[in-house]
Specification:
By secondary structure, the chain is mainly α. Helix content is 83%, strand content 0%. It has helices at residues 11-21, 26-30, 42-57, 80-95, 107-110, 114-170, 174-242, 247-361, 366-397, 404-453. It is rod-shaped and about 185 Å long.
């Protein structure tokens, strides 16, 4: 006992603890330090152990004095005092190894000693402290798990509402379908008209190039004619100075020269008129160029709007793909939760069957069943409160629709945390069920031993 891993408390601390945490009513009032020191009283020690067993295993003190009904005992009156002590002894022998006490004997019940009783009570006190801490931790984890489940439900509702909105945005209503068809037809007509105008403009540009080449050729011819006229005038001046001709020949030459000048003037007028016509054609071509430029700008705007719509469609497809992935993950999580709930249901069914058998054998446990039913009613009330809270949360979720994109990442993180918490809870529950099964097996073995001994 000198190498224990728990502290040995004083008698005052032990008395205060057991009066507040274990004993109730008149027993707590009458329990004092004199019951433990200098010589512990066997009756008080036995009642303490019975109350501890009742607190931990719900094993009532009246059940210690019961004799098995299947055993045929000739004189049951002789076993009234021994059965209670032996029952407490056997159950304390099973319980105290969890408190790191391995040398509990029958004398510790019949003739307890001060130091030994203080060590045993301090070990039980340490175990009860540890039990309270672990219960608080498990209750916190259960509360977190319930909160995470509520958040999951709220997030699923938000996702469903987002799906509905996306469907409403993507699908064109029948009222606007006619307008969309008209716009598409107008776009196709605009494209065909622009193609025809481009072809006409190209043809006009070709004709303008031909006319420009013709004008250039005629301007060259006019320049040559002017040069020839100037040369002729010079030659005429030289000839007049050198040769004295007859007046008739001069008149004929002058008439020829006048006719040539008239022809040249007529050709110049024709070229001017032709140039004016070409200038009007050029102005019309520039006007058509401006109109074509405006149409081209409109087409560019339409192309940019079409590109934007394509980008939005691609973003919508990506969002739908992400939403489908998350929906699959949520479905998988729901399936896993259903499987775990089924497993828990099977375990609870087994426990209920065992409880029913025990109820048939022991009619005294009806009060315990009533307590369990009261707890179930409290749980139903809590569920109704949770339903009200869920309705309030659904009302608040309408305000959080704008934050769906940011909350999806939070949802994934919270689901991972919830899965980890659920795994830890499942492992802890499995360990508790294993311990309960081991204790049940040990109790059955002890009952068989007691029945053989008696």
């Amino acid at each position: 006992m000198s190498e224990n891993t728990f502290p040995v408390y004083t008698a005052d601390a032990i008395v205060n603890f057991y009066r507040t945490e274990v004993l109730t009513g008149q027993e707590a009032k009458h329990f004092t330090k004199n019951d433990l020191t200098p010589a512990p009283k066997p009756e008080t020690v036995q009642t303490l152990y019975m109350r501890v067993l009742h607190l931990l295993y719900r094993f009532r003190p009246e059940c210690h004095s019961m004799v098995p009904m299947l055993e045929n005992i000739q004189h049951p009156a002789y076993h009234e005092g021994a059965t209670a002590i032996m029952s407490v002894y056997m159950r304390m022998r099973q319980f105290l190894p969890m408190c790191l006490v391995y040398d509990f004997s029958l004398n510790d019940l019949l003739a307890p000693k001060k130091q030994k009783t203080l060590t045993v009570l301090s070990a039980i006190m340490n175990f009860l402290h540890f039990r309270q801490q672990r219960r608080a931790v498990i209750l916190e984890k259960q509360a977190k798990f319930r909160a995470d489940m509520d958040r999951l439900q709220a997030y699923t509702k938000g996702n469903l509402e987002a799906e509905r909105k996306i469907e409403m945005l993507t699908t064109i209503p029948p009222e606007q379908q006619a307008e969309a068809d008209e716009l598409a037809a107008a776009l196709s007509e605009l494209q065909t008209n622009t193609m025809h105008e481009y072809q006409e403009v190209n043809a006009k540009n070709d004709s303008l190039a031909e006319w420009k080449t013709k004008i250039a050729e005629k301007t060259q011819k006019l320049a040559q004619v002017k040069v020839d006229v100037s040369n002729l005038k010079e030659d005429i001046g030289k000839l007049k100075s050198q040769i004295v001709e007859s007046p008739e020949e001069l008149k004929s030459q002058m008439e020829k020269m006048r006719e040539n000048v008239k022809n040249i003037k007529n050709s110049i007028k024709e070229t001017d008129e032709r140039g004016v016509e070409l200038q009007s054609m050029v102005q019309s071509v520039t006007h058509t160029d401006t109109e074509i430029q405006q149409m081209y700008n409109l087409l560019q705007d339409l192309e940019s709007s079409m590109n934007k719509t394509k980008q939005r469609q691609e973003e919508h497809q990506e969002l739908t793909a992400q939403y489908e992935k998350k929906q699959k993950e949520l479905k998988n999580l729901c399936i896993e939760e259903g499987q775990l709930k089924r497993a828990l249901g099977m375990k609870l069914d087994k426990e209920s069957k065992q409880n029913i058998r025990r109820q048939k054998r022991r009619e005294i446990k009806e009060q315990h069943v009533q307590d369990v039913l009261g707890q179930c009613n409290q749980i139903h009330q809590k569920r109704e409160d949770m339903v009200d809270k869920i309705q309030e949360i659904s009302g608040e979720s309408q305000q959080l629709k704008a934050k769906i994109q940011s909350l999806r990442d939070v949802c994934s993180k919270e689901t991972k945390k919830a899965q980890a918490l659920f795994d830890t809870l499942s492992t802890s529950l499995e360990e508790l069920h294993r311990r309960i099964e081991m204790h049940v097996v040990d109790l059955k073995l002890d009952v068989t031993k007691m029945s053989v001994n008696f």
